[in-house]
Structure formats: C-alpha cells, structure tokens
Specification:
single chain; alpha/beta; seven-stranded mixed sheet; five-stranded mixed sheet; 10 helices; 29% helix
C-alpha cells in the first residue's frame, strides 16, 4: 500500500460516495488486482457504514497514511452528504479481526438491504459480517428459480440463499450449517423479511455425519452448495467437495438443479465441472453465473465461481455419459 496507491484510492471513494448506492454494495475491490498497491484492501458501503477491510498487515507508515486519508475522507462534503455515520477499518489479518473506528462508532448489529431484502450484520465481533456481497447475483438467481421448489442450502451460514428462496416462493428450505449461531442469525434474517418460518428448517449439524437427516427432508428441486475453502476439522475444498457431489443424485428430484460454488482464487471452474462429471455424471453443466461488476478481477477464474448443473434426461443416475 504505497502513497501513490492511496492517492488513487481517495478520489475513487469520493466519487463512489457522490451519491452512495441506495443499497449495500462493494465500492472498491482491490482483491481483483486491478489497482497496483491496493491488492489487499476492499471497501464496502453498508448503508450508513463505510467498511474498509485490510487482508494483509501494512507497514506502520502505510497504515498511518491510510488512516490520515480516511480521516480526510470523513471530513469531506461527500461524506457529509452521503448520510454516513461510521467509517470503520477491519484488520482482517489479525486473529481477532479487530475493528477500528475512524469516524463514528462500531455498531454491534446493523441492518442492510439487497434487492429489497433485509439482512442483519454483525460488525466488530466476527471476521465476516454476515453477508457475502459477491454472491448477490447468486441470491438473485435462486430467488428467480425457487417458486414452488424444495430447496437444500448446504453450508447455509446466515441463510442468505434461504431468504432469497422464500422471497421467490419456495415451498420449503432446509438450511444446514454446523455453526448454530450463524443459523440463529438466519432466523433473524427471515423474520426481518416477514417470512413464514414454518417453511424453513435449520439443521445445526456437520454435513458428513448428517446425510440421513438431509435425505429425510428431500428429495429437493434445488441444492445449493457454497462451502468455505477450508474449515479446520470439517471441510477442505480439494478433499471433501467430491464427497458432496457424489451424493447429489440421491438428493434431487427428476428435474432437480444444483448451484455449486467455489470462491478460492486458485481453483477454477474446471474443478466443479470435471468433479461433477466424475462423481455425478447425470448432472450436466448449464451455465456459470456472472459476478457483480464491482467484483471485476484481472483473471475471471480467480473470482467467485457459481455454476448451475441440471439433470440430463438422457442419463440414468450414475451412468457414464
């Protein structure tokens, strides 16, 4: 993070706040590597909160320069006219992901909206705030394809996909995640949107020990798989994703679809396409969803991969193509 890079960032943020987006959006995505010297910095507009996230520790002089630049931003007419009240820096490289307030305070909870749906974020307590903004088009796709569907949402986290599915008219959604606190936040998110919780199930279990519970609620018209790249003791992308793929035929209806996701920059879409062909050949690749334009990357295969698969009517379950 060099002085020249910060000189580039300052006017970009001023422009992004003049005026700010009406809903939550990423304003600056340095991790897309399109801005030299800013590869480990992002900036999100959380509708009144401007959140700067640092993913690598800068040297002390660079951190001091960033703090001065952000303080200047907080004194600008663009900041005042934006209606923002908190300018925060999250040090994601620290074990506690410490949050620093440059302007205002760190709210423990904060409400945002996306595509007219409401979500509650936790700021200052966890590494992740509660909604992955790069998955906006994925949630929109689920909402558009959920009417009348039974949906399985694996690695549900705070149930963003589930909220989108119920908003789109899903008949039933089953959320599974071993983090029960995240599922509790998912319940909050459904309540915020006035949803009937009778349509939503929350399973606080480790997936690979819970296939019988998952099957009990099926079969499903749509299965969503959005795992972390690595979760100590429970999931490793290259070792465990295939175990899920091979289970899909027994979970899906005759016309079932899958939204399978990977957000590891070193893993391209071929990992999922080839993996599905090997483990569940009755499911064929249909499309890769676009990523929101604010998440542009110098290498499109380094960004989020959200791939849609559907049953091939000409293939029996498990039969080779």
């Amino acid at each position: 993070m060099t002085p020249d890079a910060l000189d580039t960032l300052h006017p970009l943020l001023l422009d992004a706040l003049s005026p700010p987006p009406e809903e939550t959006r990423r304003l600056f995505h340095g991790r897309g590597r399109r801005w030299p010297g800013l590869e480990h910095l992002t900036c999100d507009w959380l509708q009144g909160v401007l959140l700067i996230s640092l993913f690598r520790e800068p040297d002390p002089a660079a951190l001091e320069a960033l703090t001065r630049m952000l303080a200047s931003l907080g004194d600008s007419p663009a900041w005042r006219q934006s209606g923002a009240h908190s300018l925060l820096v999250q040090h994601r490289y620290r074990p506690d992901s410490a949050m620093q307030a440059i302007r205002g305070e760190v709210p423990e909870e904060w409400l945002i909206s996306e595509d007219g749906l409401r979500f509650k974020l936790d700021l200052g307590r966890n590494r992740n705030s509660g909604l992955f903004l790069d998955m906006r088009y994925g949630r929109r796709w689920v909402r558009e394809h959920a009417r009348g569907a039974r949906v399985l949402n694996l690695f549900a986290y705070t149930c963003g996909f589930s909220v989108a599915a119920v908003a789109g008219g899903a008949e039933q959604v089953v959320n599974l995640d071993m983090a029960k606190a995240a599922l509790n936040r998912g319940r909050d998110n459904h309540r915020l949107n006035g949803h009937d919780l009778g349509k939503v199930s929350f399973l606080g279990h480790e997936l690979f020990k819970s296939w019988s519970k998952v099957r009990k609620f099926g079969p499903y018209d749509l299965v969503i798989i959005d795992p972390p790249s690595f979760q100590k003791g429970s999931f490793a992308l290259t070792q465990d994703y295939q175990k899920i793929l091979r289970r899909l035929p027994e979970l899906l209806t005759a016309e079932g679809r899958v939204l399978a996701c990977v957000n590891d920059p070193d893993t391209g879409p071929g990992f999922l396409i080839d993996g599905m062909a090997a483990e569940a050949p009755c499911l064929v690749f249909r499309e890769r969803l676009e990523n929101p334009p604010e998440f542009a990357d110098v290498d499109p295969d380094s960004g989020l991969k959200a791939l849609v698969f559907a049953r091939d009517a000409g293939l029996a379950d498990g039969a080779p193509p």
